[in-house]
Design goal:
The chain has 194 residues and is an alpha+beta fold. Helices cover 29% and strands 24% of the residues. It folds into two domains: 2-128; 137-169, no CATH class. The chain binds zinc ion (2 copies).
């Protein structure tokens, strides 16, 4: 499951609606479950492959204090697991059955493409809605540890007492939007160097 956080004035419902609208067209089908703080959108390819069902992804959209956290993962799909197990076993006896495995590989590639497409739609929508990987304006304040006056993020010294503010600057990973602690060398969510 890959997670990204989008900072800004957006809600899980809005992102879900954008996904359903986009994927209800052409070769996909999409449906929304739940509403409010946690919404799941299920997206799948329409066509059924021989020896299995459609490739499906689930997108979990969760309210975050500064926007929406998005998780995209391949849906557990029993049909695939069952057919893979059978293929591995029977291929020993009949190499022609390896063709079944090739079909499963094609499925993996298809689900990777679907996952990329899902992220592309989310990125496009959130960018249009003004959400970014950085903390939004309303979180761009920090309280001085010494005198408790609110300061703009980026100030090196407190506007009231002059104390250094380096320890309290909030920061986000520019790859996935995760809020990180000052001094952390790698993002705990996506492991990108900070
Ligand atoms: Zn101060
Ligand atoms: Zn990250």
């Amino acid at each position: 499951m890959e997670q990204r956080i989008f900072h800004g004035n957006i809600t899980p419902d809005e992102v879900a609606r954008a996904l359903v609208a986009e994927f209800s067209r052409s070769n996909f089908q999409a449906q929304q479950f739940g509403k409010g703080n946690q919404v799941v959108v299920q997206i799948s390819t329409r066509q059924f492959r021989q020896g299995g069902g459609p490739t499906a992804m689930s997108v979990t959209l969760q309210k975050h204090p500064d926007g929406v956290a998005v998780m995209v993962g391949q849906q557990s799909w029993l049909g695939v697991a069952a057919s893979l197990g059978k293929t591995a076993f029977s291929a020993i006896h009949n190499p022609f059955l390896l063709l079944g495995r090739l079909e499963a590989l094609a499925q993996d590639i298809e689900s990777l493409q679907l996952s990329n497409e899902v992220w592309r739609v989310i990125e496009t929508y959130t960018r249009a809605a003004g959400a970014t990987r950085e903390l939004s304006e309303r979180f761009r304040r920090m309280v001085c540890e010494y005198c408790h006056v609110a300061n703009e993020v980026g100030e090196s010294r407190c506007i009231a007492c002059g104390a250094p503010l380096g320890n309290v600057q909030p920061k986000t990973c520019l790859n996935c939007g995760f809020v990180v602690r000052p001094g952390e060398p790698f993002c705990p969510n996506c492991h990108s160097p900070l």
